[in-house]
Amino acid sequence: GKTMFEALDAIVPPSRPTGKPLRLPLQDVYKIGGIGTVPVGRVETGVIKPGMLATFAPVNVTTEVKSVEMHHESLPEAGPGDNVGFNVKNVSVKDIRRGNVASDSKNDPAKEAKTFTAQVIVMNHPGEIGNGYSPVLDCHTAHIACKFTELKEKIDRRSGKKMEDFPKKIKSGDAAIVLMTPSKPMCVETFSEYPPLGRFAVRDMRQTVAVGVIKAVDKSEATGKTTKSAAKAGKK
């Protein structure tokens, strides 16, 4: 057999998702005198660098990234796991907020999710959940009420096999495929493409009553606002 060291050497470090398009959920947005608007958050996938044209979803605002900073040092780029602040031009603090997602306007830009389909497992809900239930979802940094628009199927939570079409109710221990509708604009992704933006907790009665992974997203194709600096930078 292998020695312990050979076994340890054989463990491949997890690949950091730098090759994917940028997804950076905002934790906060600051207004800093003399600099301007500085969104802050952790890069989940891809890289962010100065000169990039960033699109914020679901607000659909595109602007140029002027600088990227971590611990008060300017960076040529930041990647997955980095907590960064970045300066954006011509965007006010009122335009973007926590829960918005920054992305690269030229590489699969993030969009608003009109509806999404998720596999939900009910953990500890005291009653039953049916169509119309509207708890708060915590997904990346967003905290938004979403309606269980339609319980599509009840599934076996271990095998994933379908047990029942359009169940009336689900309760603790059940798993289901659910069509969900955010109560206000929200940006989410499928778990298969962008894992950190594709899983969520369902919060109700001050506890986590269910967890879910997103299987499909119906994205809004609305055209957004491009700032002057983005238009200029785009022509370069």
Automatic annotation (TrEMBL):
Subcellular location(s) per record: Cytoplasm
Pfam families the UniProt entry points to: GTP-eEF1A_C, GTP_EFTU_D2
Domain Translation elongation factor EFTu-like: 36-101
GO molecular function term, any single one: GTP binding
Keyword Nuclease: no
Family: Belongs to the TRAFAC class translation factor GTPase superfamily. Classic translation factor GTPase family. EF-Tu/EF-1A subfamily.
Protein name in the entry: Elongation factor 1-alpha
Biological source species: Oikopleura dioica
Lineage summary: Eukaryota, Metazoa, Chordata, Tunicata, Appendicularia
